[in-house]
Amino acid sequence: MALAGKVALVTGATRGIGKGIALQLATAGATVYITGRTLQSREGAPAPGSLNETEKEVENRGGRCIAVACDHSRDSDIDSLFDQINREQNGRLDILVNNAYSAVDAIMQNSGKPFWTLPPTFWDEVNNVGLRNHYICAVKASQMMVARKSGLIVNISSMGGLLYLFTPAYGVGKTACDRMAADCAIELKKQNVAFVSLWPGPVQTELVKKNILEPMRQNQDRAGQSDSNVAEHREQSRTTAVHRMFEQGETPEFAGKCIVALAQDAGLMKKTGRVLTTADLGQEYSLCDVDGRSYSGTRSLKYILQIVGWTKASEYVPSFIAIPKFVYNAYYGRF
After folding, report:
1. Can you list the domains of the chain with their CATH numbers?
2. Are strands 193-199 and 275-277 parallel, antiparallel or unpaired?
C-alpha cells in the first residue's frame, strides 16, 4: 500500500469531501484520524453522515480509521485532538488535511443577500472553523512534522479565493486559506514540510445534492410547465448552467485520490506554497475518479462551452485546450 505506515488527520470528515479524502487515504494504507461534531447519526439531523459511519466504511474497505469527536470552534477540543494523536502515534503525523467547515447551510441560506444586511456574527460563522481553525491545526501539525523533518499540510479551498462566490465572507476566507499555504510554506520549506492549497472542482456532496441539485431539478420541472417572461428565462439559464456544472462535478473521493498522489510525489517540495486544482493534478498524475471519469477542469474550453450550453460547439474542441492561468490572473487581478 502506497501510504502504509503513514499517519493522517482529516478534519470535518463526517460527510462530503472530508469523508471522501479519508476513504482514499485509508485505502492507500494510512492510519487516518477523522474529526467532526457528529459522532453517531441521529434521526432528524439537518445533514446526513457521522464519524462512525465514515469509520465503518473505511473499515469495510480494509483501512484503519480513528474517529475523534471534535468541535473545531473550541480551542480546547483541538488541543485534545493533537494531544491524542501525539500520544498514540509517538509524535508522528505525516498528513494534515484542513477541511472542517461549519458554514455550508448558513451560506446557502444567505447567498444573494448583501453583506451589509447580515449580522457581523456571520463572519465568525463562516471563518471561525473555516479559517481560524485551519491556522491552529496547521501550527500544531507543523510542530509534529518539523520535529521529523517531513510532512504535508493541505488546506481545502476553492475558486472563491480568486473570484466572487456566494458572499464576501466566504471569498475572504478562501483567499486567506490560499495565502496561509503560501506564507507558511516559506517558513516550512527548509524543514522539508510542504503546505499547499487545493481547489476541488464542483463536487457532488450530500449537501450539494440536497441544497442545489434537487431544488434545481424541481425548479426546472416547474418552469417547463408554465410560460415565462424574459427575466425568468435569464434566471432559468443561469440556474441551468450551475446545474450542469454540478451534474458534471467530481465525486467527494477525487480530492482524496489527488492527495494520495501528492503524498507520494518525490517532487512534492517543488509544489509547496502553491494553489493546486484537482483537475490539474488529475491530469498530471493520470487519475480517474472512482466512477471512471476524468476531468479537464474549469480552465478547459470544452468544459466552459458545455456549462454555458454550447454542447454542439464543445464536441469540436479537444479537451486539452485550456485557458492559460495568466489569463485568469490578469482578468481577476487586483492591480
Report:
1. 7-204+249-295 (3.40.50.720), 296-335 (no CATH)
2. parallel
pLDDT tens readout for residues 101-121:
988 788 888 878 999 999 999
In three-state secondary structure terms, 97 is strand
Whole-number Cα distances in Å, 243 to 3, 164, 262, 301: 36, 18, 30, 18
The set of catalytic residues is 170
- Give me 238's grid cell: 443561469
Q: Could you give the C-alpha distances from 175 to 64, 110, 280, in angstroms and in order?
A: 33, 20, 19
The one-letter amino acid at 67: A
How far does CA 299 lie from the centroid of its chain? 18
Q: Are 273 and 181 in contact (CB under 8 A)?
A: yes
Q: What is the pLDDT of residue 231?
A: 46
Q: pLDDT grade, residue 233 (50/70/90)?
A: very low
Amino acid at residue number 158: S
Chain centroid to CA 97: how far? 9
pLDDT at 42 over 90: no
1 to 24, 27, 188: CA distances (angstroms): 12, 8, 27
